[in-house]
Amino acid sequence: MRDIAILAAAVPGAEIKDGILLVRADRIVAALEALKKLGDFILFDISAVDRPAKAAPTAAAPGVAATSVAEVAAPEPCFELSYRLLDMKEKAKDFLTVRVILDHEAPSVPSVIGVWKSADVLEREVWDLMGVEFIGREKLGRILLRDDFVGHPLRKDFVMPKRERFLSPAWDRKAAEGGL
Amino acid sequence: MGDFITEADGLETQEFILNLGPQHPSTHGVYRARLIMDGEIVVSAENKIGYLHRGIEKIAEGITYAQFTPYTTRFDYVSGAMQPWAWCLALEKLGNTVVPERAEYLRVIVGELQRIASHLVMLGSMVLDFSAITPWTYVFNAREEILDLLEAVSGSRLLVNYFVNGGVNADIPEGWAAKTEAALDGMLKRLDDFERMVSGNEIFLGRTKGIAPVSAAEAIEYGITGASLRASGVDFDMRRDSPYSVYDRFSFAVPVIKGGDSFDRYQLRVLEIRESVKIVRQALKTLPDGEVRAKVAKVWRPAPGEAYAATEAARGIMGYQVVSDGSTKPYRVHMRSPSFCNIGIIPAKAPGLTLQDFISFIASLDFVLGDIDR
Amino acid sequence: MELSDKGPGAPAHGSAEPTTLIKGKVHDGIESILDFCRGNSLWPVTFGLACCAIEMMTAGSARYDLSRFGFEVFRPSPRQADLMIVAGTVTDKMAPLLKTIYDQMPEPKYVLAMGGCAVCGGPFADSYSVVQGVDTIVPVDVYVPGCPPRPEALIDGILKVRAMLRDRKLKEVPFNA
Description:
The complex is a heterotrimer. By secondary structure, chain A is of the alpha/beta class. Chain A has a single domain (about 5-55, about 70-175), classed as NADH:ubiquinone oxidoreductase Nqo5 subunit (Beta Polymerase, domain 2), CATH 3.30.460.80. Helices cover about 20% and strands about 25% of the residues of chain A. The relative contact order of chain A is 0.15. Chain B is an alpha+beta fold. Chain B has one domain: Cytochrome-c3 Hydrogenase, chain B (Orthogonal Bundle), CATH 1.10.645. Chain B has helices at about 55-60, 65-75, 85-95, 100-130, 135-155, 175-200, 200-210, 215-220, 225-230, 240, 260-285, 340, 345-350, 355-365, 370-374, and strands spanning about 15-20, 30-40, 40-50, 165, 165-170, 305-315, 315-325, 330-335. In chain B, β6 (about 305-315) and β7 form a beta hairpin. Chain B is globular. Chain C contains five helices and four strands; from the N terminus they run αβαβαβαβα. In chain C, strands 1-2-3-4 form a four-stranded parallel sheet. In chain C, β2, α3 (about 95-105) and β3 form a beta-alpha-beta unit. In chain C, α1 packs antiparallel against α5 (about 150-165) and α2 (about 50-60) crosses α5. The chains are: A alpha/beta, B alpha+beta, C alpha/beta. The interface of B and C includes residues 23, 62, 137, 141 and 159 of B.
């Protein structure tokens, strides 16, 4: 991959943090346009990570090791949106990550569909599963979940819906009698 | 075409909506295309997917890393054995695990054998869509010999649990190397028979030549990877250009065809099968001794952090983003699916194709719904 | 969309007793002869959903050869089929379509649940979008467990449907029928 300092210099408003380019949400389109102009990049992936508020640590039962640690402490609750670009210029091709930190209550970011057409399906998936709004493109519709699904399942606060559909009345009768 | 009825006759034609799938013999799974047709010609196409969305990324957050490894096989179930590779690479990055040499070679051997089997399924399904049943049986028979090898080494024919965090599950049994050589010889003979039947066949050429040509620029714009990208003239293969595992020790060619129509996408996979055979043979000859699995704790807690790893899977480049919070269960797993990005080009290329050309187009793109819907 | 009210354990399809005007041994004989013939040429509808579909295709290919039993004629149209092999995970999005295809099949029709996902939801049973077993939607005659079941296991399952047709009083098919 090309030297990240050179890439950061070409992108307006980018900071480098742990080998990742951090960009503000309203500057993402300009950033990706600048990278595309440098040439030999493919938009590979768009993914989101939900980081809600730090949860209170749960007390483990005596004698049992706690198998889960409290939610990762972020400076503040946010959605981390990562755009992964494949750098094809150098001999050893590698992935460049451009990250945007979004507000947790109403995550929204300008759509980059005008820069790369491959962003179309990727953005729809992120909206479908994570609920991140992409502004500036046609209305986002469900792509993976069924159209009348309520909620965004991959969020940490998603509650699994009770399974009431598609159970036959005989099952329900049996369950009521306690026979299941 | 279409000079039987003209506007001068005063007849109006009407476009209609046709649902292709999700239950369809030629859609390679539960894929639905909502087509607006003008007679036989597609005016516009829309991908409607999600009929196999099983929520595997959410399931990952409730089970341990080792328990998730068999789930990765269920993504692209046609090439099950090499699916956990990117996942294991990401875990090894998170845990700074060094995979033993012998395990790396065995990964390459099993991975390439699985790539051959997966491409054979693509070839067979493509000709089956054109109602050529005999070549389909030839190709599936050739694949059976490879599945026997995978079963001997892992216990399962299709959804192979061989790759684990730190190496592979078990060593190869005695006599497996000789059996592999024999199986590859048999497979190549059947592949030659298949090519004799199909590659020069007038009907096959008529159905695939010139159908939906994808230029190199378009392929890059839409994020297409894998054999479909190389069939459009872009010379990029992760095994050579960003080698992971021990791919840099083998000499193999990366076939590229400057064309981009359905026939080129088919032809490229035949060439790739032959290259994979070369890799397997070289790996078997130079297989070193040693351990097949690095020592990884039974209850494995990686340090909090994030890792990204990608491999050249049979359908394109597959990537895994694994975020760990320090516990035994992953915090977030995201899988970049090659087939999901490859189908983005279907609405762009479909207008103007006839319905049978549309079938030829999606068959040559070679997607698998488990990969798309996850 | 009417849900079937036959829970698990109830005899699924095919006629449990003759229901025509002509009662008696003669009619019974004709139906059982017809059932015997049906058992020798069950036509599956192509309903491969996920990984089990690949094993279903392999069962029809040269090595495992469904056609020696008469079952290789996979019909894409449900109106020409009498056996629905649900091969793969049924999701909430796919479930109404599965019921539609099932309704379009003419009687007598049989359903075979192939693989862990069709039997009970399989490894994805606790997901937010997976139906926990196809028998919550349609009555199932034969369950073939496995992930995926080998082609031989699928053939064994279809042969159990054939055994059920040969002896309609059979509620449970013994292991080597």
